[in-house]
Model the fold of this input.
Amino acid sequence: MKKIILALLLLSIGNELNAQLWKDRYDAVAYARSQTIYYVNKNNKWGACDADGNVLVEPMHEDIFLINMKRNYFLIKNNGAWGIFDLKGQQIVAPSYNGIKIRDSGNNYYGYFALLKDDKWVILDSNCRTLTPPAWYISLSYAPKGYFLICEVNKFSVYDSNGNKIVTGDDGYNLSGIQYGYLGFMNNKKWGVCDTSGRIIIEPTYNEINFSVINFGYIKVRTNEKWGVCNTQGRTIISPAYDDYVFNNFVDKGCIAVKNDGKFGLCDISGKKIISPTYDDLSVHVFFDFGYIAVKDNGKWGIISKEGQQVVPCGFKDVRILNNGIIQVKIESQWVDYGKNSLSLANSEIENNNLYRKYYNEGESFFEKQEWKKSLKNYKLAATYKETFDVNYNIAACLYNSKNYKEAIQYFARSIDYAQSQNEIDLARENIAKSERAYQNQVQRRQEVGTAVVGALLNVAGAALSGGIGVSNGDSEYQAWMQYRQSGLPGAATISFEDFKRANARAAANGYQIGNGNSNSSSSSNNNSSSRKTCHYCNGKGTVVDNNSSVPTFGLSGTKYCEECKKDVPLSHCHVQCPVCKGKGYE
Done:
């Protein structure tokens, strides 16, 4: 056994040495696509060898490339022109072409390539047999299906894999239905359809064709702006009269959903109208087996018969039919058998929904006009009948535009409770952060303005007192105001009685002795201390939660316990100095 292993090892080493010896004969060696074939270079010329060093193509060419089109070929370049050699080094196509195209997917070749000469292309199969005449343009996109598009003398033609011309389209083509045996062609700016034998199925009389439902056996056709339906035998099923059609889940039940102005109706597959397009949505799944169609109007579901008669009014969150034929409706989150009680509840819901829609639409109208107060009033009325993400979000938007940022934050947060998607949640959170920043800036601006106003009023009061004007209360305060207006001090003649009283109050809070013209600076400090108010923004803590924290979590998820908040919080949670009181805890 040991002798056998040793012999195999020596043989392997010998093969490697032999391989290395033949490779040493060349300036460069590289794997081709097949690992049993190598590109070799000698004196800046390329050729090919097999794994044992046997020469397949002498290294005497400018470039070489291995392709696998059912059988192996080399593309060879000499004097700037391309040709084709087989693995035995035999020339198949002389190097006389300016360019070569191959159609592949990864390493899977479909057996066709195109050659360019004198600005015209021809298509060859894997046996290098010419399939198409010279053309200005060729497409190998549908080569896997065995079809080629070429353009000769400004006319498009489709050829099959045997080189037979199928159809010529003067102005254009559509091969998207080719896998089902149909292709579109355009003549005189109008579209038609033929099969892959060239037999015309639909005469070129339409503005557009669409093969997206060809798998159902239909072709959509457009005249002007309206769509119709033809079958694959060319018979018109529905004349062009609708915006669009829905086939999925309908054709199996023998019908086609039609759409106009965003509303749905129904036709059978013979084209006979079942329901005019008046509903927001409809469903035939299961229902059709019982002779019914589920329809949706104003966000609520109901049921009608195949003849269009109302069976269940559109007033429920959802509807369904059990296997025993019993109709059930969904009210809130509960399914109940349809009957008088459910109808009464549904009518109540319908009424609430109508009122909601009425006030919501009025709110929308005022919102577009930027009449925020009127819009807000109507949105809030709508919310009393039904709460949704939209109505809460729009209330918040009105408040934000009215600069009531604090209340806007509350409604943006409330809208999250009614969100139906992650996008809505993200949108609300983004606006919460935006509103919080605006609110903080607003508070800061008010603080700055307030400080300036108080300072001005104190100057007024100080001027009054220093002028010997007594400012106690009642009539004496009024008299003091009159005296001050006549004092000749700057601004005194125009100050109102209300402003003067506010100045006196501020002066008293800052230690001015009421009733005489003196001030007591020592009492000013004490009075200031006793009149301090707790900061309304941080509730006296001096810090607030940083909702815009940039503290990284490095991809971690989870929570931590915040001693200040006394609860579990996200890892990025942190506190910063209150922007209103600047960390003092009072205003």
